[in-house]
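Example 3.2
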Amino acid sequence: MDKVALRLLLSERRASIAPESHGLSRPTRQGRRARGLSQAQIDQILHRAPDTYGRLESGRYPNPPVDLLLDVARLFRMNEQEWIALWRYALGQDPPRPLDSRSGEELPGVWQEILDGMSHPAYINDRSWNLLAHNAPFAALFPYRRVPANTMRWMAVEPDARTVLTDWETAWAPLVLPQLRVALAADPSDKTLCGIEQDVLADPVAERLYESASAYSPLDGDERPLRHPELGHGWVTMCAAQPLAAPGSRLIMLAFRPGARRRRGRPPVLRARDAE
């Protein structure tokens, strides 16, 4: 627990909430200079025992319950980064799920400009693999540049994918299908993912591979064969990142090289230079 950071985060957010917005009056007793809600008012709003919130803000509440953190975050209208910080400061770990169930479903529009400035194929999908944005080199990976609405569904069951993703059954499905299974294990109520799973189970080849999928393979630096509709056969190396504004979304960048696979070792890892 980082008591100092926790106190600063909560006191600043508490000061931004006007008591009048909750039908309460601003305390006027002598000596109180803090803006916003008082600690006692928060207990009142959240229907908690006296000093519950005060113990949390001061760091006197070891292992605060999840429902308390959730109630406080929603009352304070925290964003996803503040929600993550609250968990790290109070419990020393990341939250198991976003504060807003819709998190990861939208992005600031500037991301399209960023993608358009990339020479490699690149795209961003939401937490259910619905496509949010992509650039022109990414569109060129698909026959007739027909970009799918959901990249997981395309990779898992669409016939076109098995011509573009060379050696789909041995090189691609063992990478793709475990990702779907892991995502569903984390959120079995996701309707989009449930629909994709049904499509997979209806496909005899995909079903067999899905039922045996267990290990999740990381994307960064992974190299796979690919038949580019315009450039021919080659190899693609993948890298993944997450836009901070949308937890659960993914930025995927693909470096395509036409021709035979280069027989060379992996590029050296990147490390910060030692401080002088």
